[in-house]
Design a protein that fits this description.
The protein contains 4 helices and 21 strands. The protein is mainly beta. The strands form 4 sheets. Strands 1, 14, 15, 16, 17, 18, 19, 20 and 21 form a 9-stranded mixed sheet that branches.
């Protein structure tokens, strides 16, 4: 449904840079002035995630700043700063990202006025106990994405994997989570087993467009696919439309073969795998596949997404809004 850029991937690991020599993926996107910014997750020789920046004047050809903008500094992010999402609110840029300590994932936030210098503000939910899946710690919370506007004087964000919830705030610093889910898995669909929040919501003439990830089963061949939801313009807690089929799914070789985080054993296994090992798993249909989108930009009626492909590289694709809503 989306038209992939003919020269995908657009950002790839650099074996000469030890901080993102293995994987670059899950980048968020901002257009400010005439410049496109992609903040992406890079994994290097130490297998710790950091957040880097790449810039472009056409949204297709990017130059990477080789030093990370966000790196682990505290115990709760000691194993990585992951999957950023950036929203422009009241003259500042707010980055939500996931801090991972090796056991638990937690949503954190940082702010910037210029997109280059970032100040960390800490965890979004310092004391949240919000159970999501039986096999996860109760304080697990990730994939937060902020709305760029207020509703009845309150700021709003969506967060979560397995289900997607909302949270509200008076000041963007202290958040109260809503126990009612916004988006949940649906039996018999591509998102039957799991859903996870995508990029920050996009305002359109028809309502708020939310892109999200879904998988249909927790098995060795699971695939992350991209779905879409349209929310009411004035009450974004109300879903008025949801795609029945994915708007993007792994089909290209660069989306189906890579250092997938979901291989049994995770990073511990990936450290010891060769390219041949990965290819053999793919040939045997034992390798999970993934398209994972944290960034989308609306220009006119066109939605351009930036997504992680195979958890290893960054790609882009575009579609007009009417096509999404007809899906």
């Amino acid at each position: 449904m989306l038209e992939r850029y003919a020269h995908n991937p657009i950002i790839t690991p650099d074996p000469t840079n030890s901080l993102y020599s293995k994987k670059v993926y899950n980048g968020t996107a901002v257009k400010h002035g005439d410049t496109y910014y992609i903040f992406f997750r890079g994994v290097g020789d130490d297998w710790i995630s950091r957040i880097f920046l790449a810039t472009s004047h056409n949204g297709l050809d990017f130059e990477i700043i080789p030093r990370p903008l966000i790196s682990p500094e505290t115990d709760w992010e000691s194993k990585g700063c992951e999957d950023p999402r950036v929203t422009h609110i009241n003259g500042k840029f707010w980055m939500s990202y996931t801090g991972f300590d090796g056991i638990t994932a937690r949503s954190a936030v940082a702010i910037s006025r210029n997109l280059y210098d970032w100040q960390k503000l800490g965890l979004i939910f310092p004391y949240l106990e919000h159970p999501q899946r039986e096999d996860l710690p109760i304080e697990w919370h990730k994939s937060a994405a902020l709305f760029p506007e207020t509703f009845d004087g309150k700021f709003l964000l969506f967060f979560g994997d397995n289900h997607i919830w909302s949270a509200s705030s008076d000041d963007l610093l202290n958040w109260t989570a809503n126990p009612e889910t916004i988006i949940s898995p649906r039996q018999g669909f591509f998102d039957e087993a799991y859903v996870e929040m995508g990029p920050p919501p996009i305002k359109t003439d028809k309502g708020w467009l939310v892109l999200y990830h879904g998988i249909d089963a927790f098995n060795s061949t699971r695939a992350y696919r991209l779905g879409a939801v349209l929310l009411d313009s004035n009450n974004p807690l109300e879903v008025i439309w949801r795609s029945n089929t994915p708007i993007l799914e792994p089909s290209e070789i660069y989306e189906r073969v890579g250092l997938i985080d979901l291989v049994p054993g995770g990073y511990s296994s990936l450290r010891n795998m060769t390219d041949s090992d990965i290819k053999n798993l793919a040939d045997k249909h034992q390798l999970p596949t993934a398209v994972f989108c944290c960034g989308a930009i609306k220009e006119g009626n066109i939605i351009r997404i930036y997504y992680g492909a195979g958890d290893t590289r960054i790609c882009t694709a575009s579609v007009d809004l009417d096509t999404i809503l007809a899906h």
